[in-house]
User: What shape does this take?
Amino acid sequence: MLRLVQATDWIVVRFRPSCHPRQSNVALTLLAILLLLFGLTLADAAWRSQAGDYTASRALVRELGLSDLSLFTEARYTRHPTQADRHSPFQDHPAALEHFPTGSLLLPPTCPASCID
Amino acid sequence: MPAFLERQKYLLDYTLAALLRRKTRNFGLLLVYTLLVFLFASALLLGQGLRREAAVLLQDVPEVIVQRLTAGRHDLLPVAWLDSLQRIRGVGAVQGRLWGYYYDPAVKANYTLMVAPERGLAADEILIGAALARVRQLGVGDYLGLRAANGQPLPLKITGVLESASELLSADLMLLSEAGFRALFNLPPDQYTDAVLTVRNPREARTVAEKITLALPNSRPILRAEILRTYDAVFNWREGMAFVWLGALLLAFAILAWDKAAGLSAEEKREIGILKAIGWETGDILRMKLWEGTLLSLTAFLAGYALAWWQVFHGGARLFAPVLKGWAVLYPDFRLTPTVDPRQILVLLAVTVLPYILATLIPGWRAAIADPDAVMRG
Assistant: This one.
């Protein structure tokens, strides 16, 4: 019983008004700021997707007939995943272990029209 | 309405006071939770950004690329094939392409060499990509010496550096003339690397590809749709090892969160018993627990997501650069265009926020419906 009285007293003490800002107001303000940041990410996406200029890059693709991004330059089949043959990641035999790190981020080449038959 | 709001604020006040009583544990949890959302959101946003970039940049890739296969490997294509391809009904223009790779032992980097007939380059002139120029510290007017197939050094003069805006396509690119390319690789004049062709009616591209396979059985036609589909699959967030280890991380966090939220301590149970004894209703306790779960998980979600956004779209995704780079020396400096997929945000919310709220609510409800006296006595 003694313990109960102490605990309830404690709760009452915590709700006493003080000169500090109310904790709920602080928490709700923090949440509002975070929600505003989230809203800003949406606005950023809307604004920058319109402002993006791909003219030079697309002209280069048309001129050279480029087929791949130069994102993974460590191996032939990761530099040109769309041009690699189906055995490229396994240079020695189809069951060979993959050894390039970015190979773990890439899927094997998709089945081209030539494998329809 | 104001009374309802005021009631919620009192509940929130109490929840915060309860959370702050165990501040080390709760701040630690919030930190780990934010980090987890940050990692998941970063991987999602990066995959999504790269997928979009690939889709926009590769819109104009050749309609059909034809390779010659020998023993399952890409082989050089004889010039006679260009005529054979041209004769296939539905095929428009046919052009042989010359491109290949060069390993530079000086910097241990792979370059992609490509002939650019429209640039009017002399046999000893080249254009290089911005990343290549950066790594080799080269500029316009400098010479780059390559070792030709016959073992002789071949000095090439740099006449230009490709725009850095197109670095995602041209980081490792070296453009040269046909004469220079053939001299470097000692390539016979009647052979090409592959052929690109246009199709008169783009809807017939697949039919044309089937005709090519029939006419040239050891050929491999690659369609534009397949190229785009490959990139879609490559960057698909469901694929790849990143999500395997992130999944393991999520599982570890789920165990931690469940242990924290589901296993109410004796002190927390006693607290609920006291609240019930002094007149709180089960609904109030559930609302208090709902506030606790929502506050922690929503703060972690919003903070983690905003940090991931900044990291991926404004910080150049440097956190993932080592993973994407692998052992490569040349890596493009690129800024992705931000893109939002509401489905992915919902999935992220469902995976990170909902389970925690549930794990907080259920044990709270169990303690709240029990007899206060029994709960207080433990």
Observations:
- Residues 1-13 of chain A have pLDDT under 50 and may be disordered.
- Chain A touches chain B through 73 residues (CB under 8 Å).
- The first helix of chain A runs from residue 2 to 14.
